[in-house]
Amino acid sequence: METPNMSYIHSLSGGDKEFEEQLLTIVKKEFPQEKSAYLDEINKENYVKAAECVHKLKHKISILGLEKSYKLADRYENNLKEVNLELQNDFHAILNVITDYLEN
Amino acid sequence: MNCIIIDDEATARTIIKKLCSQLPELTVVDEFPNAIQAIKYLNKSEVDLIFLDIHMPDFTGFDFIQTIKNPPRIILTTSDSQFAIEAFEYSCIVDYLVKPLELPRFEKAIQKAKIFQSSNEVVVSNTKPSKAENNPEEKEKPSNEKDLYVNIDRRLIKIDIPTIYLIEAKGDYINIKTEDKNYTVHSTLKKIEDKLPESTFLKVHRSYIINIKKIIDIEDNSVLIKKDVIPVSRSNRPELMKRLNLL
């Protein structure tokens, strides 16, 4: 399993620590909201709306340097539109890894 | 260039602002979490460039583009590459950036926006130059044999002049309607009027030039061309009537 990292954020910040903190604060605020919205739609079996939530979450996944996970999320997003839940467990594992990273 | 950012994700807006701050030619004047707020802003203020997300709840980026009058240059920012083809159907879209955004690619998009600003105007080329060159009068007043080349997204696109039936002014743009296709070009009616043969084209209203050969009928102060009913201003009506082969 990939580990979230700061490589993208570092390359973007050019050493601007204040910006890095600002961006991480926003990600820490938005990610749980987006994850919760996604799980709500999954529980309601609104798979097209769940796919829209995955679309948003994909950006957070890429910001945290998770390149393979991003590709999986991309496939999962498309699958959901066709009510295919095949990659659900893998995607939820990604969400859990990110949750742990942002909480620590 | 004054720009605004429209994206429902605060994370994305923060990243775009950071990238803009690294390019001195860009000034972010405002940011919006949805397209509706941006439309309200644009009703009162002008900007040079918009960074626009496609995927937004309720009102997508494409809905936004279709809603605003005279859109400025737009750079799309999205996590999807699947809309690229649709995106370039809009002449106001200068580039399409896939998230996560990175500075080198972002800089390229800004360069494109600058080029786009300076190059989107009407030019004319003659496919049969020798005849026109030999006749100064014809050089000034293009004949029906000429094609019109319009610059759209840095491509010169040829339009067969006789197929044009209507040109309408839309703010800083003109909409050229032909038998096959419509073209939106950053130009003015005055500029294109100078490039069209006088014998065929007539300005009948401050916002319309028509091809008089394509008129279907005339009623009071309007003409019917194809399915378009075009107003004829009082001052232009005598000239229109003079041009017609009236029984």
From TrEMBL, chain A:
Coiled coil spans: none
Domain named HPt: residues: 16-104
Transmembrane among keywords: no
Highest taxon, organism lineage: Bacteria
InterPro entries per the UniProt record, alphabetical: HPT_dom_sf, Sig_transdc_His_kin_Hpt_dom
GO biological process, one term: phosphorelay signal transduction system
Bilayer-spanning residue ranges: none
Entry annotated with the keyword Phosphoprotein: yes
Keywords: Phosphoprotein
PTM sites of type Phosphohistidine: H55
Gene Ontology MF terms in the entry: protein kinase activity
Name listed for the protein in its UniProt record: HPt domain-containing protein
Automatic annotation (TrEMBL), chain B:
Entry's Gene Ontology molecular function annotations: DNA binding; phosphorelay response regulator activity
InterPro entries with a match to the protein in the record: CheY-like_superfamily, LytR-like, LytTR_DNA-bd_dom, Sig_transdc_resp-reg_receiver
PROSITE patterns given in the database record: HTH_LYTTR, RESPONSE_REGULATORY
Domain Response regulatory: 2-114
Recorded coiled-coil stretches: none
Keyword Phosphoprotein: yes
Key words of the record: Phosphoprotein
Region feature Disordered, mapped onto this chain: 126-145
Keyword Phosphoprotein: yes
Domain HTH LytTR-type: 148-246
Positions bearing 4-aspartylphosphate: D53
Stretches with biased composition (Basic and acidic residues): 130-145
PANTHER family: STAGE 0 SPORULATION PROTEIN A HOMOLOG (PTHR37299:SF1), TRANSCRIPTIONAL REGULATOR-RELATED (PTHR37299)
Protein name (record): Two component transcriptional regulator, LytTR family
Upper lineage: Bacteria, Pseudomonadati, Bacteroidota, Flavobacteriia, Flavobacteriales
